[in-house]
Structure formats: structure tokens, C-alpha cells
Write a structure and sequence with these properties.
By secondary structure, this protein is an all-alpha fold. The protein is 80% helix and 0% strand. The chain is built from five helices and no strands.
């Protein structure tokens, strides 16, 4: 028989894991922004390494959102029909974020060997936009879905953690 603590830990795991993944993604974005600033200051990573860092971040964020869209959101919508509008709004955010990520990847793919102010302005604007929408999105998602995720008991998710709950330690 499980103790009250074990039962409580079991019930809160998915919501807590979501918050942990969001913290990790925020940290990756902050590191990318720092690396971009260092590059434009003339003492950062070479363009190729900066592109690799961007690709790793973009892949992690895309994996997280694809996992939500294809896995978590349908489950939540079925179990909590009153949250379907929230799910629609979150998916709309995912599309906006994908658009910004594509712009950012394109800009970083074309980075000149020597930093220039015009490119710096465009790259920083994309990063600022991405940061703003991610923060708003994560805060809204956590407010609306953490308690719902904490109430779910899905043995399949416990055996094989879904993509939206994976971080670099799990990948």
C-alpha cells in the first residue's frame, strides 16, 4: 500500500515535470541569447558553433511543443473538455513560436564571419520576440495545465515519458 506521500508524489509528477522542462528551455534560450551577444561583441562563438547551439535549442523547443500537440493536449482535451479553448490558444502560440524559430534559424544560417550591426539588430529582435512569447506562453500554460497534469495518472507516461516532458537529461 502506498503512503500518502508516495501517492501525492505520483499525482503531482507530470505538472512538476512540465515546470522543470520550461525552466530548462528558458535556460537554453538565455544561454543562446548570451552567446549571440558575445558573438556580436566580437568575443563569442564562431558562427558555425552559434548555429549548432541554436539548432539544439530549436530542436528541444520543437520536440516539447510537438509532444504537447500530439500527446498531452489530446489527452487533456478528452479528460477536461472545458480546457479545449485553452488548448487551441496554446497550439496557436506553438505556430507563432515555430514561425519565429524558422526566422531565427534563417538569420543564423546566414551569419557573416564578422559580426555586423544590421544582422545583430535582426537577430536580437527575433530573440526578443521569441523570449517574450515563450515567457507568456509558459506562464499561461503552467497556470492553466499544471494542476490538470498533476491530476492525471497515465501508466504509459510513467513507463515511457512523453516528448513534452523530456529535457537534455532524458533525450
Amino acid at each position: 500500500m502506498a503512503s500518502g506521500y508516495e501517492a501525492s508524489s505520483r499525482l503531482t509528477a507530470f505538472g512538476n515535470q512540465l515546470i522543470e522542462v520550461h525552466i530548462w528551455l528558458r535556460e537554453l534560450l538565455a544561454e543562446l541569447r548570451d552567446n549571440v551577444d558575445a558573438y556580436y561583441a566580437g568575443d563569442g562563438l564562431p558562427p558555425r558553433d552559434l548555429r549548432v547551439h541554436c539548432l539544439a535549442f530549436c530542436t528541444a523547443l520543437t520536440r516539447h511543443h510537438s509532444g504537447e500537440d500530439g500527446g498531452a493536449f489530446p489527452v487533456i482535451a478528452d479528460e477536461f473538455p472545458e480546457l479545449r479553448q485553452v488548448i487551441t490558444e496554446l497550439k496557436t502560440d506553438h505556430n507563432r513560436i515555430d514561425w519565429i524559430l524558422a526566422n531565427l534559424e534563417g538569420l543564423l544560417r546566414e551569419l557573416p564571419a564578422e559580426p555586423d550591426p544590421a544582422t545583430a539588430t535582426r537577430v536580437r529582435a527575433e530573440l526578443e520576440g521569441l523570449s517574450a512569447i515563450m515567457e507568456t506562453h509558459f506562464t499561461y500554460e503552467e497556470k492553466k495545465l499544471v494542476s490538470v497534469l498533476n491530476s492525471l495518472d497515465l501508466p504509459d507516461w510513467r513507463k515511457d515519458r512523453p516528448a513534452f516532458l523530456l529535457s537534455d537529461q532524458d533525450a
